Amino acid sequence: MHPSFRHYSATGYPIKGCYTGCFHFYMPFRPGVVSYRNGSRWCDRNSDEMTEKEKMLSGLPYDSRDPELLDHYHRARALLKQLNQLESTAIEVRQALFNDLFAHQGNGVWIETPFFCDYGSNISIGDNTFINVNCMLLDNHTISIGKNGLLAPYVQIYTANHPLKAEERIVQTADRTHYVTSARPVVLGDNVWVGGNSVICPGVTIGDNVTIGAGSVVTKDLPSNVLAMGSPCKIVKTL
């Protein structure tokens, strides 16, 4: 179950844009407190005590230029540079590098290069999944792909999000301009085939045995055992 939370401002109202997941409950006013769900248990944390990485993985606005996150970023870039320059015959080296890059890589996973991601450490891939060339997984939050998956060329999975209004998105200070960013997890079930040039947006969960047509933009959850396609992606039929 994905973390769900609500972040309260000094006024006692939820901060706009800081909501992930779907839940119904009443929470009394607690300034600066983040409540998030860890499995079946609700946990509280003072947001001022959280690292930027913890904020990122809780769905809160975070600073992507934080030194800890930049260290993870540069580590991933170094591994990706090695991976994307390997000869196709260096299979064992490639598998070892992907094992270092990802949180989890199951048995029989095959990933064609070039491959791109942000951190790698937030990506889990199940057994026997095949990822074709030029796929991009922006894992600001967790990306979980089940077993026996097929990702066609140029599939893009995004977890990062920004406020729609420019005045809420752009923050200017005396020394720099930065952008409000938060992230939501993406989950693909088992036996999912995603057609080429498809985009999966932040917060989407796709069930088992799903086929997604090429060029689709998936903005909402999809149940198991369906064929879906289009922009925005819609269910065409049950499989």
Describe the structure using short key phrases.
239 residues; 7-stranded mixed β-sheet; alpha/beta; 4 helices; UDP N-Acetylglucosamine Acyltransferase, domain 1; globular; disordered N terminus; 2 domains
> What is the CA-atom radius of gyration, in angstroms?
19 Å
Briefly, what CATH class of the largest domain? Answer: Mainly Beta
Low-confidence stretches: 1-31
- The CATH architecture of the largest domain comes to 3 Solenoid
Give the CA-based shape: globular
Count of helical regions = 4
* Major sheet attributes: 7 strands, mixed
Biggest sheet, spatial arrangement of strands = 6-9-12-19-22-24-25
- Count all strands and give the number: 25
Return the domain count: 2
Structural class: alpha/beta
Protein model, in words:
The chain is built from 4 helices and 25 strands. The protein is of the alpha/beta class and 239 residues long. The protein folds into 2 domains: 5-49, no CATH class; 67-238, UDP N-Acetylglucosamine Acyltransferase, domain 1. Strands 6-9-12-19-22-24-25 form a 7-stranded mixed β-sheet, with no helix packed on it. It has a 5-stranded parallel β-sheet with strand order 5-8-11-18-21, with no helix packed on it. Helix 2 (67-84) packs antiparallel against helix 3 (91-101). It is globular.
